[in-house]
Design a protein that fits this description.
Elements (H helix, E strand, L loop, with lengths): L7 E5 L9 H9 L3 H9 L3 E3 L2 E2 L12 E5 L17 E4 L3 E6 L16 H9 L23 E7 L2 H12 L4 E9 L6 E10 L7 E3 L14 E13 L12 E8 L6 H8 L22 H12 L5 E9 L6 E5 L4 H11 L5
Parallel strand pairs: 7-13
Antiparallel strand pairs: 1-4, 2-3, 2-4, 5-6, 6-7, 8-12, 8-13, 9-10, 9-11, 11-12, 13-14
Helix pairs in contact: 1-2, 6-7
């Protein structure tokens, strides 16, 4: 290993190196993985003749000096932060809360502070389960940063183990309120597939080809099941038959809990969540000159997150063995969007 943390390590490419993909060539002599090289490129720590490189896919050129720096490690152990929490229930073993949209659950690159973990470390003052590790104390499950709603965290190891078993058995009740474009066909049903990281975008998950309803079609990815139910339709899709709304309100119940599961599944059946920046089709809401339609267009354009809210959570308390059920009302931004939609004709 020729790299020393915090210092620049350079090598001049030779004729034999010409044409190789940059990340592959850098990996060969730094002994860093290609994914680590990619991270260093994205953070401005790779240079060519002193100029910062922005793409790992560029080709190596002979007689160019390439330099790589591995920044010194930073102590990113999460620290307690006095952040208000909307607590629905708490005892010596667990805490149930209504997470606000915009709050990341645990520290990650780009979100080292102001996370739910930082808030819990302050509120619980050392009484969080350590099973989740240093970065995720007490975290048994999570919601995406811009998804709001009910979550449970473990304060004791016994609670953590008991809740984890219930999640593994898919016995915990989880119901989400969703606002989507269009309407699913059929109106209520079960979506089953395998989910894996998208081959085209590392930030996204995708349905593994051929696995919708056929888990044996591939052994790639993780089994995912979402149950959905149509509740209301708003407006009428352009050039569509009566009863085909522009926007639908759905209830989605998770049987499994994979990364981005509801977002991926609904987008796959052509009903992406309103406002979803990753899986939604970011086209403008087409409106007529009617005031109600124009109000919806403005509200949809202003809604900058996925319209997804974890409304209900039910589980057996892992210590007392009592069944607990919790509900969280829609947050103001999503309630406003629903109120504006309600002024449209209902299908």
């Amino acid at each position: 290993m020729t790299n020393t943390e915090g210092t620049w390590n350079a090598r001049t490419a030779e004729i034999a190196d010409e044409g190789q993909r940059l990340d592959k060539w850098l990996s060969s002599w730094t002994e860093l993985s290609r994914s680590r090289i990619r991270d260093l490129v994205e953070s401005g720590n790779v240079r060519a003749n002193g100029d910062i490189i922005s793409k790992v896919t560029r080709k190596v050129r002979a007689d160019i000096e390439y330099a790589v720096r591995v920044p010194p490690p930073v102590d990113d152990t999460p620290m307690p932060e006095n952040i208000p929490l909307d607590i629905l229930f708490e005892d010596d073993h667990l805490i149930v809360l209504n997470k606000a949209a915009g709050m990341t659950v645990h520290p990650a690159p780009g979100s080292r502070s102001a996370t739910l973990v930082n808030a819990l470390l302050f509120h619980c003052a050392g009484s969080l389960s350590g099973i989740g590790g240093v970065m995720r104390p007490g975290i048994v499950h999570r919601l995406d940063k811009d998804t709001s709603g009910v979550m449970v965290a473990a304060k004791s190891d016994k609670a953590h183990q008991g809740l984890s078993k219930q999640f593994a058995k898919h016995s915990i009740e989880r119901v989400y309120t969703c606002l989507v474009r269009g309407i699913p066909k059929p109106r209520s049903g079960r979506i089953e597939s395998r989910l894996a990281r998208s081959p085209n975008d590392r930030k996204k998950q995708s349905v593994v080809r051929g696995t919708m309803g056929d888990m044996e079609a591939s052994d790639v990815g993780r089994h995912a099941v979402t149950h959905y139910k149509f509740l209301k339709g708003f407006g009428r899709a352009q050039h569509a038959s009566i009863g085909t709304p522009k926007v639908s309100q759905l209830d989605c119940q998770l049987e499994t809990g994979r990364t981005h599961q509801i977002r991926v599944h609904l987008a796959h059946i052509a009903c992406p969540l309103l406002g979803d920046p990753l899986y939604g089709k970011q086209r403008a809401y087409a409106s007529s000159n009617k005031p109600a339609e124009e109000a919806v267009r403005v509200a949809v354009a202003a809604f900058k997150r996925q319209a997804l809210h974890a409304r209900h959570l039910g589980f057996v308390h892992p210590v007392t063995k009592e069944f607990h059920s919790f509900e969280a009302p829609l947050p103001p931004d999503m309630q406003h969007l629903l109120d504006v939609l309600t002024d449209l004709p209902i299908n």
